[in-house]
Give the backbone structure.
Amino acid sequence: MLTTTCGFVVVAPALTLPEDWADKVILQAGKSKIYAVPFVGFPEPKIAWTYNGTPDLPKTVTTKADSKTITVSMKSIVRADRGVYTVSVSNCVGGQLHNLGMILVFLHFG
């Protein structure tokens, strides 16, 4: 944390990951999952998502952010949605990133 000559306190971005966030998550195909990730940072951080290293997220995945929380919604996931999702937050003081690797499980009932 730094203080500017104007008296503003600048804070490097930091994410508070939910307990069920992991480097690898196993989800059942056809199901949905929503993660809400609180963050801090001032000035307000730039937030970016990537999927397998590209900025193009699958159509079944949406993200939004307000001034305190980043939300990723995965709706009716399909095989093509597997991969590594990365969220990064950054501002003039620093940055942080975290991966979420999604593994899909297909259940067949006979």
Observations:
- Strands lie at 2-3, 9-15, 24-28, 33-42, 46-51, 61-65, 69-74, 83-91, 94-105.
- Residues 18-104 form a domain with the Immunoglobulin-like fold (CATH 2.60.40.10).
